Amino acid sequence: MKIIFAGTPEFAAVALEALHNAGFSIPLVLTQPDRPAGRGMHLQASPVKQFALAHNIPVAQPQSLRLDGKYPEVAEEAHALLHATPHDVMVVAAYGLILPRSVLEIPRFGCINIHASLLPRWRGAAPIHRAIEAGDVEAGVTIMQMEEGLDTGPMLLMESLPIAPDETTATLHDKLATLGGKLIADALHKLERGALSPTPQPEQGTTYAAKIAKEEAALDLTQPAAVLHRKLRAFNPFPGAVAHFNNIPVKFWRAELAAAPAGAMPGQVLAANGHDGVLVACGEGALRVLELQKPGGKRLAAVEFLKGFPLEGGRFS
């Protein structure tokens, strides 16, 4: 079976590596154009491109696949390349470009997506972040036959795993990426044998995982500590969770739930020392912040952070 692979970030690169290691023929990889990154803002290849080039897999980076979009000539060239590249199926994982019907219909087995949620929960761009933020107790991966709707296609394989109480988007991402690689390899082996049975998604239980905006990093300390704790974990590593101390933004990276005395004002620093960490009152309960970061600084354990940024008796907003 010949596969065209379409993906961009590390999540997709893990799946590409799994398919390569499983021995599938991959005559072409699609990934987004190189983007400026780092302090020097130099163009940087995506993790998928880096893996493909390291393993001598041809790469194409069209800006669009929509014939009626902003780059019709680029899309026409991409369509011609897809038609000219012998393949049976396209595997898509966090590609970042819309696949129009004209692309979905090219492979004889269509296009199959690796989606990091238990569909129909968390369709959309940020399923891992939103699952943690919402307090879900489990996450997973769904292998789905793609259609024109947003993550609406029939399900082919699904597997779940628990979300640990201290899970962050970073740690859950890595677990789901590994699971996605395993499942897509299993799915393609079954597809070769004609052993995949599509299952329509349920009508009930649909939720949408909107793309994460930088503005969401701001913490509202009048909210319950449990809600804020989920947000800290969901927004680690991006975009982080921020509170202000004397108008200076401070990122909270790691925290524990704690009790707060009656009458404590939201944002009030109840303790700030090596033993207690940074104990911050919330609308209900408190957060014991264990790792913080000031502008231009490194992420530091609370005891180290406090050596250069005293907080005793102050208040976050």
Let me know the average pLDDT. Answer: 96
Say how many strands there are: 17
* Cross-sheet strand order for the largest sheet: 5-2-1-6-7-9-10
Largest sheet: 7 strands, mixed
What is the SS-derived class? alpha/beta
Number of helices: 8
**Runs with pLDDT <50, length 5+?**
none
Query: What is the helical fraction, as a range of percent?
Result: 25-40%
How large is the share of residues in beta strands?
25-35%
Shape: elongated
Topology order in helix (H) and strand (E) letters: EHEEEHEHEHEEHEEHEHEEEEEEH
Gap between N and C termini: 57 Å
Q: How many whole angstroms does the radius of gyration measure? A: 23 Å
What is the topology?
Layout (H helix, E strand, L loop, with lengths): L1 E6 L2 H12 L3 E6 L4 E3 L4 E3 L2 H8 L4 E2 L11 H13 L4 E5 L7 H4 L6 E5 L7 E2 L2 H7 L4 E8 L9 E8 L6 H25 L14 E2 L15 H10 L6 E5 L2 E11 L10 E5 L3 E5 L4 E8 L6 E2 H7 L9
Parallel strand pairs: 1-2, 1-6, 2-5, 6-7, 8-11
Antiparallel strand pairs: 3-4, 7-9, 9-10, 12-13, 13-16, 14-15, 15-16, 16-17
Helix pairs in contact: 1-2, 1-6, 5-7
What tags apply to this protein structure?
317 residues, alpha/beta, 7-stranded mixed sheet, 6-stranded antiparallel sheet
Describe this entry's structure for a reader.
The chain has helices spanning 10-21, 47-54, 72-84, 101-104, 127-133, 169-193, 225-234, 302-308; strands at residues 2-7, 25-30, 35-37, 42-44, 59-60, 89-93, 111-115, 123-124, 138-145, 155-162, 208-209, 241-245, 248-258, 269-273, 277-281, 286-293, 300-301. It has 317 residues and is α/β, with parallel strands linked by helices. Strands 5-2-1-6-7-9-10 form a seven-stranded mixed beta sheet. Strand 16 and strand 17 form a beta hairpin. The N and C termini lie far apart (57 Å). 41% of the residues are buried.
